[in-house]
Amino acid sequence: MDSDSAPRRPGMVSQFFRRMWEIQQNFMDKSTPHMAFRWTVTLLLFAFYFLRVYFLQGWYIVTYALGIYLLNLFIGFLTPKIDPTMGQDQDEDGPSLPTRSSDEFKPFMRRLPEFKFWYSGTWAVCIAMFCTFFEAFNIPVFWPILVMYFIILFVITMKRQIKHMIKHRYVPWSSGKTRYKGKEDTGKVVMSK
Question: Which residue stretches, if any, does this entry annotate as coiled coil (predicted)?
Answer without folding.
Answer: none
